[in-house]
Every structure is written in C-alpha cells, then in structure tokens.
Amino acid sequence: MTLTESAPEVRPAAVRPPAPARRLPSARTALVAGSAYLIAFVFLFPYLVMLLTALRPQEELREATYLPQTFAWSNFANFWTGGLAQNLGVTLQVAAGSTLLVLLVALPAAYYTARHEFRGRTAFMVLVLITQMFQPTAMLVGIYREFYQFGLVDSVWSLILVNGGFNLAFAVWILHAYFSSIPRELEEAAFIDGNGRFGALLRVTLPLAMPGVVTALIFTFIAAWNEFVVALTLTTTPSNQPLTVALNSFIGQYQVDWQNLFAGSVIATIPVIILFALIERKVVGGLTAGSIK
Amino acid sequence: MTTLATTPAGPQARARRAGPRPRRRDGLRPWLYLLPAAAVLLPLLGYPIYMLGLLSVFDYRQAQVSGGEPTTFVGFGNYATLLGDQRFWSVLGQTVAFAAALVVATLAVGATLAVVLSRAGRVPRLLLSLAAMAAWAAPAMTGSTVWMFLFDADLGLVNQVLGIEGFNWFYDRWVAFGVVGATVVWHSFPFVMVTLYAGIQAVPASVIEAAALDGASAWQSFWKVLVPILRPLITIVVIQSIIWDFKIFTQIYVMTNGGGIAGQNSVLNVYAYQTAFGSSEYGLGSAIGMVMTLILLAVTLLYIRALHRRGESL
C-alpha cells in the first residue's frame, strides 16, 4: 500500500495505472478491526482466566479482583510435587509413542499409493478415509475387551496403540498429498544419477515431503496428547493415567480444586498450542482431504 | 494464507498429468508397503468393531464378566430392548438436536469470522488467528474446565458480571446444554473459520468488485456471490462439523459430571459409556455403540460422495 502511495512522486502519474477502487470507508475498517479485537479477546479470555486462577492463592478465589493480590506460584510447584509430573510423563510417552508408530506405518503406505497405480488402491484410500471418521468413543466396549484379552489394560502400551490406530488415517492422507505433489521425474533423475531406488527416496523425495511429514507428526502428537475418553476407560491406576484424565480427578462431586486444576491445565495446554502454531496452515488442507482447490 | 489453498492441490495437479505409471503386474508388491498400515488398522479398528458387534448380541453384564453366570446369546435382544426404551429415543433425539444446533452455531460463528478475517488489517487478523488457534489446539478437557469455572455458581465470573448470586447454570437441562454448546463451538469454530477464510482468499477480488459495482451490499455479495462459489467447500465443512458434533463426549462428561442431573444431558456417546461402564451393561452398551457407529458410517459415506463430486481422486 505504501508503495502505491509514494510512487507518483517518483514516476510520472500517467504511467501508473489508477489505484484500484477497493479501499473501504475508514469507519467500516475501524468497525471490522474493532470487532476483530473484541472477538479475539473474548476467545482468549478463558485462557486468561485459567492462567490468573492458577496463580491465585486459595483464599483469593472468592474476591473479584482482576489480578491476584499475591501470586501463588505454589500451585505450579504442587504440580511437580503432587504426582502430576508422573502423569505428564505418561502423556509424553503416549504422544511420542503413537507418533512414532504412525510415522513408521503411514510413510510406506502413503508413498506407495502416491507413486503407483494398482488394483485395490482406491479401495485402500476409501477405507483409510472411513477410518478417519471412526471414533473410539462408540467402540469403547470393543476396545476395552480387546486389551483386556491381551492383558494390556491399564498400561501405556494400550494407549499408544489406540492413539496410533485412530490417527493413522489423517497421516496417510496428508502424506499421500505431499508425495503426489513431488514430480516423479526428480526421483527418477536421482535414481539415474546412481542412487538406488531407496537412496533416491531418502535423498530427494523425503526431504521434499518434509513439511508434510512434520505436519502429520505434530498433528498425531497433539491428538494423542489431548485424548481423554479412551484413557479414562483403559487406565485405572492414578499413576498410569495421562494428564487429561488425572486432571479430571480434581473435579469432585461437590468441590473442585480450581487452582491446582488450572495450574495443571496450563501445563497441559501450552505445549500443544505452540506445536499447533507451527502446522496450523497445513492441517486444514489435510482435514478436508485436499479439497481446497 | 494463500499457500494453504495451493500447497496440496497446485503441484498435485501437475503430478497427476504425469500420472502414476500403470503397472502391468501388481503382484504382492503393493501389499508390502500397505501391510504395516493394515497390520495397525485391522487389530485396532477392525477387531474392536467385531468385538462390539459380537457383544451386542449377547447378554453380557457384570455377572458374566466375573463368570458368575454363563454368557447367553440373545440375538437382537439388546437392540429390541433399546428400541423399546423410551430413554434411548429421548437421548437419540437430544443427540441429533444438540448436534444440529452445534453445526448451525459453529457455521454461523466460523463463517462470520472468516469474513471479518478477510477484511481486517494485519494486526487484528493475526490476533484473531492466534485466538482461534489456541481454542483449536487445546485439549477438550482443559477447555471444558475453564468454561465450567466461568459459569460456576459461586465463583464464576459470569454470575458476578450479571450480578446474580448462586445461579446454577448446570441445573436446567437446556441451560446446561447451552453452556456446554458454547464450549463446543469455542473449540470447533476455528476449523470452519480457517477453512472458509482460505476459500474466500482463493476467490478473485475482481468477482467481489464486480458485484459491488453492480450495487450489491456486503450482505448480498456474501450470500449471492461467495456462498455459491464456495458451496462445495461449505458442503465438506458442514459434513465434517456434523461428524465432530455428533461425537461430542468430553465436554458433556466433564462439564455436567457424567451427563447431568439424572443423566438429563446425555448424548448417545455418554449414554453408551454410562450404560457399559457405569451400569456394567456391556451388551447393551455395545448395541448403543453399534447404532452410533452405523450413523457415523452413513454420514461418512455422504462425505465421500461429496468429495467425489468435487472431482477429488481417491
């Protein structure tokens, strides 16, 4: 914008095409900007409340001051001493484990379906798409029964497997889209240059598909980190529960331990927001299965 | 943001022209690559569904689990029980109505904000995107607890601001649904907003300008120009929202303490969970789960058809 405005001083005005008549009246612009600020504030407000409550001492909960009068960092200290650190560890194991599982399994499938035409390819992709819509909640009895049979109830492994399984579809789809977007000529050139098939894949295709790989990994990580109902059903020992389930136990029938709940919630929320900020733009394309054209 | 619209699609089209090379003999080679995925999907999705279907035709309760009573085959007995149960129908109706309201609300909020986003300046746009992202990424669990706190009868900010003492927002069925619904919309509007925003960005500015020159108001150009152009995208967003809002569990379970007073805020998922794991009626719970799965499958098939219509190659 500034360029267009300063340009006439440098060049003869006649040469410049007339500025596009697209400028909105300033009152409307201000209104739009104002409402955008207001809406953003309203949507961020719950997080502000979460953070401030986590920093309030117990006695101050009933007083309606905007900022805590004394900052109680002890609520965060309680997180580490009160055993929740162990639950954070479980969450990390589940998220990392299922991400690794998805990576190992989705990469070959996505690569092959993107590169080769074969009988059953469409069927496979449709099947993957259907599983993306499946949800563990409706199938809980079946899932519980299965892990019960294999003696994996109340273990980190069951959570890793379930989260990996239910997030596989999205990873396959987004990786498939990325692999399809890389011209096969590039890979073939590398192959002819003396790299093996695998070498060409490793040195040329995979680096080019990296943004897709990172997106799929972070998305899986976040989904597994946030998962609630499967963990609620499959884990019973408090120290085996991931953070989301452990935090739920702060909510009693008659009383809620708000400060400690929110201190834990802040810790459970911040990492995923940061991770999500890295991939947000790419996720949308994957969620609509490449439907934005 | 425009990269969003073109990243997967643009180069993909180029690759398609080159086309995957047709292979003369497929042999077993494809399955070498697909086997790991199949090895995860089958036991983790296929087997639980099989188990769910199997248990749903058995009388399977706590007594059978502990081995006190033999497991008996009851055919469609559990389904018959469900269909004859007034409560099942009321929960089903509630689920559909709640999901429908959520889809409408999410779409209204998401679409409005997508338009605001496309007109706002750099700084407000960034801030709004950040707010949306924070709501999108957060665990449903922690989001639910904050909203619960905001509407808490004694400590909640909402009661303080409105100046009402001790009003319990979770006491009345529909008020409670309203609060939970607001939380769900807060979680799910960002997807709609960001997707539609990307769609709007892809519409050439000249089209909107032409409409404005012809004297269309902003309202008219939204309904008469943008919506028809974006219709395929909107279809997909609507179906995705239906699927998401139908699956709601965490917000209701956490905010209404497992389904509200006497289970008045139950939706199908919560009802299935409570039947199976609350009352140990595993067979009956499985039957509810099967009903839920079948409904979702039907919506998914609609989704695939909508994708197919867009010329999406599967």
TrEMBL record, chain A:
Q: Where is this region: Disordered?
A: 1-20
Q: Name one GO cellular component term.
A: plasma membrane
CDD domains recorded: TM_PBP2 (cd06261)
Q: Where in the cell is it found?
A: Cell membrane
Q: Where are the transmembrane segments?
A: 30-55, 90-112, 124-144, 156-179, 200-225, 261-279
Which coarse location class applies to the principal site listed for this UniProt protein? membrane
Asked if the Swiss-Prot or TrEMBL record annotates the protein with the keyword Membrane, the reply is yes
**Alphabetic keyword roster:** Cell membrane, Membrane, Sugar transport, Transmembrane, Transmembrane helix, Transport
Record has Cell membrane as a keyword: yes
Point to the regions of Low complexity compositional bias.
Answer: 1-14
Question: What protein am I looking at?
Answer: Multiple sugar transport system permease protein
Q: Which organism is it from?
A: Planomonospora venezuelensis
UniProtKB/TrEMBL annotation, chain B:
Q: Which residues form a coiled coil?
A: none
* Bilayer topology annotation: Multi-pass membrane protein
Task: Kindly state which keywords UniProt assigns to this record, in alphabetical order.
Answer: Cell membrane, Membrane, Transmembrane, Transmembrane helix, Transport
* CDD domains for this protein: TM_PBP2
Q: Which domain of life is it from?
A: Bacteria
A cellular-component GO term for this protein: plasma membrane
Q: Which InterPro entries match?
A: MetI-like, MetI-like_sf, UgpAE/MalFG_permease
The answer to whether keyword Lyase applies is no
Q: Where is the composition biased (Basic residues)?
A: 14-24
> Where is the protein localized?
Cell membrane
Annotated ABC transmembrane type-1 domain ranges read 92-303
Outline the segment boundaries, as ranges, of region: Disordered. Answer: 1-24
- For this entry, list what GO says about its biological process: transmembrane transport
Tell me which family the UniProt entry assigns to this protein. Answer: Belongs to the binding-protein-dependent transport system permease family.
What is the protein's given name? Answer: N,N'-diacetylchitobiose transport system permease protein
The organism's taxonomic lineage, starting at the top: Bacteria, Bacillati, Actinomycetota, Actinomycetes, Streptosporangiales
